[in-house]
Amino acid sequence: MKKLLVGLLTAIIAVSCVFCLTACGDTVKNGSKIRTLKMELEVYDAAGTVTATTDVYMELYLNFAPKSTEHITKLVKDGYYNGTAISNINTNWLEFGAYAYAEDGTLSKKEYNNGKVEGEFLNNGLQGNRLTTAKGAIIFKRDYDDNSSDTAESKYNTAENTMVICFSSSASTTFPANSYCILGMVRSDDANQDADTELEKKSSIDKLSSLTEYTETEVDGNKVTTYFYEKTGTYYTKWTDEDSNVHYAEGAEVDSDNELTGAELEEFNTLFGENKNYFLVVPCVKLIIKSVTVC
Q1: What is the full DSSP assignment across 29-44?
Q2: In this structure, are strands 279-282 and 286-294 parallel, antiparallel, or unpaired?
Q3: Is the C-alpha dihedral spanning 219, 221, 222, 224 positive or negative?
Q4: Exposed (0-12), middle (13-18) or buried (19+): which is 256, by Cβ within 10 Å?
Q5: Distance (Å, rounded) from C-alpha 181 to C-alpha 163?
Q6: Cα-Cα-Cα-Cα dihedral of 190, 194, 199, 202, to 10°?
Q7: Is 292 exposed, middle or buried, given 0-12, 13-18 or 19+ CB atoms closer than 10 A?
């Protein structure tokens, strides 16, 4: 009887431990070990005042992209992502990692010395990754200047520090799963309906998805989008007036004196068409990642 009681108590404790682990978050999903990252995000208005703060949780799939996830983990532990800017935001994704804001309010390249990682995806010979380019997918952005063919001497499409977070499967047009490393997912099951604000009631991925409202702003009746051209560090402004006419100017603000017309506009359209991946859509407010930590 005593042995039976001990065995029963042991079983109850074991079940309780499993329940506690499950309640605290899965350690394995889809056949992969999971490492959870916590991102603290701050939203600043034009006056430099913080208008919102929130936490976002991201899960790295260690078995699917082992080199990339360890690379990212090292950057996180070194504090690399603390103070970085969300430097590109579109309807279907945002990205962060390479830039912070300088004192004059412009994007500045962050110092980086952690090396590169070979692209961990199907076209580079890696198989078994069950993640797809869907809502919440975390992608390791390729280096656009490193697109040599995949040969025995050199793997192509390496990555350094920039992560992309997808808002929908439509992002697969730009970031197909066979040629980009999908290394994790933003959590979609952590909504809290008892929170004090509408933002905090959302899940982590829905918090990030809601940031798409900052892709453009309205100035004097014009819908305005600001671009940052990575190759030269130049800002360009696009605005659509009340008559739906589209205008472009060099600089970070609507400025008719700097509007591109005639040959200059044709030259810009050619530049934009040939280098579209280097034109980042800068949010109309500052979106700053205060910190990223390993949970």
Answers
A1: ETTEEEEEEEEEEEEE
A2: unpaired
A3: positive
A4: exposed
A5: 10
A6: 30
A7: buried
- Token pair 């100017």 is at which residue? 249
Asked whether the beta carbons of 30 and 130 are under 8 A apart, the reply is yes
Cut 0.85: pTM above it: yes
Phi, psi of 233 (to 5 degrees): 70, 25
Q: How does pLDDT run across 158-214, given as a tens digit for each residue?
A: 899 999 999 999 999 999 999 999 999 999 999 999 898 888 999 999 999 999 999
Backbone angles phi, psi at 226, to 5 degrees: -110, 135
Rounded to the nearest 5 percent, the helix, strand and coil shares of the chain are 25, 35, 40
Distance CA 107, CA 104 (A): 9
Sorted by where each starts, the structural domains of the chain and their CATH numbers stand as: 27-214+283-294 (2.40.100.10), 217-280 (no CATH)
Nearest to 279 by CA among 291, 270, 266: 270
Tens-place pLDDT, residues 241-280: 999 999 999 999 888 889 999 999 999 999 999 999 999 9
Report how far residue 157's alpha carbon sits from residue 150's, in angstroms, rounded to the nearest whole number.
Answer: 9
**Per-residue DSSP letters for 115-143?**
--B---SGGGT-------S-TTEEEEEE-
User: Distance between CA atoms of 231 and 111, rounded to whole angstroms?
Assistant: 16
Q: How far apart are CA 295 and CA 40, in angstroms?
A: 12
